[in-house]
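User:
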Amino acid sequence: MTTRAKQNRMYWSILDDVVERTGTRWQSTWSLHQVLKVRCNCIQTVQLLDGRRVLIPGSVSRMSAADANAFYNKAIAVICEEILHISVDELLAREAA
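Assistant: Predicted structure:
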């Protein structure tokens, strides 16, 4: 398994855990993922049919390995600091257990 695949698997595992721990705050891990992409500035501008421009969450899978790594690190930091109120080390220790 590649490093990126391992990182992706751990990320989604963490999101599953966060959604489970926080009850009904997010409808799904996908919803939390979308929130994290916006919070971490992983967004893109699209133009609607009527000409208006709107921001939508971007795609992590289309990022370079370096950009994806930066996104995952920032998303994990946001989860720890703003949602779970624990250190990154504590979260990673939980995931390893």
